[in-house]
Design goal:
Blueprint: E1 47-55, H1 61-70, E2 82-91, E3 94-103, H2 113-119, E4 122-128, H3 132-149, E5 156-161, H4 173-183, E6 187-189, H5 198-219, H6 224-230, H7 233-251
Parallel strand pairs: 1-3, 1-4, 4-5, 5-6
Antiparallel strand pairs: 2-3
The structure holds guanosine-5'-triphosphate (GTP) and magnesium ion (MG).
């Protein structure tokens, strides 16, 4: 199912400069940035995950995002200014609404960078296996996140896209793995063209967000019982109902 939204959660409403919207988003997740409660729809338990796509121009951020959301391949390069998409999914038995911000890789469009760095709960840093410079830039994006968020403990997934272009490969798998272990994050080599490891990248990021959230709750003194309650069977079922209800509402 495809939807698009404004990704304004927790930020002062940023103007969306370009949109591939097909549906307006509902009320879910307009209540603020931090904490489960604030990112959970008032009408149900559908948790919104704010995800930001980062990486050099032309590495395939939009193609990866569109392949995830619409299951189609973007053949041409139309430099992004800023687009946002929403996609529902059930991940590990729990419904989720992924609110994805596809950002600009071209330097002339990167003025909003700090702002969306502040808003994202999880980041996908993308480089192309055919482009050595984009691989080097991945470290710069990592540094930027750390600088803006003042922490290294941010949910992150590193992806090496254009896996299908083997004859043009300029970055080895091993180099990608090493960089991911430096970042302390999961790593996938993806192909937006062939739809390889696209869902995995997004789902893994949601898992990373959930994991860090649980750790944060524990360190904030919440009882394990409370966390368990959140992840309990009933809560999962409720979240799936919320998703179905939401779909129906959009169909009507
Ligand atoms: N063969 C192949 N081509 C890809 C893949 N992903 C993207 N491309 C192509 O690479 C070009 C750039 O893709 P985009 O998704 O627009 O790149 P981007 O990172 O969003 O670029 P900016 O918006 O300028 O930052 C397009 O022509 C895509 O068709 C892939 O996995 N395989
Ligand atoms: Mg783009």
């Amino acid at each position: 199912m495809k939807m698009a939204g404004d990704f304004t959660v927790g930020c002062t409403a940023r103007k969306k400069t370009k949109s591939r919207s097909t549906e307006k988003r509902g009320s879910a997740g307009n209540e603020g940035l931090s904490g489960i409660q604030q990112n959970t729809s008032k009408s149900g338990a559908l948790r919104v995950y704010k995800i930001v796509m980062l990486g050099d121009g032309g590495v395939g951020k939009s193609a990866v995002t569109l392949q995830f959301v619409t299951r189609s391949f973007l053949e041409f390069h139309d430099p992004t200014i800023e687009d946002s998409y929403q996609q529902q999914a059930v991940i590990d038995g729990e419904a989720a609404l992924l609110d994805i911000l596809d950002t600009a890789g071209q330097v002339e469009f990167t003025a909003m960078r700090d702002q969306y760095m502040r808003c994202g709960e999880g980041f996908i840093i993308c480089y192309s296996v055919t482009d050595r410079h984009s691989f080097q830039e991945a470290s710069e994006y990592r540094k930027l996140i750390t600088r803006v968020r003042l922490t290294e403990d941010i949910p992150l997934v590193l992806i090496a896209n254009k896996l299908d272009l083997q004859s043009q490969r300029r970055v080895t798998t091993e180099e990608g793995r090493l960089l991911a272990s430096e970042f302390g994050c999961p790593f996938y080599e993806t192909s937006a063209a062939l739809r390889h490891y696209i869902d995995d990248a997004f789902y893994t990021l949601v898992r990373e967000i959930r994991k860090k959230e649980a750790q944060r709750m524990l360190s904030n003194g919440s009882s394990t019982e409370k966390i368990f309650q959140k992840r309990s069977r009933w809560w999962r079922i409720r979240s799936i109902f919320a998703l179905v209800f939401r779909r129906r509402r959009h169909l009507n």
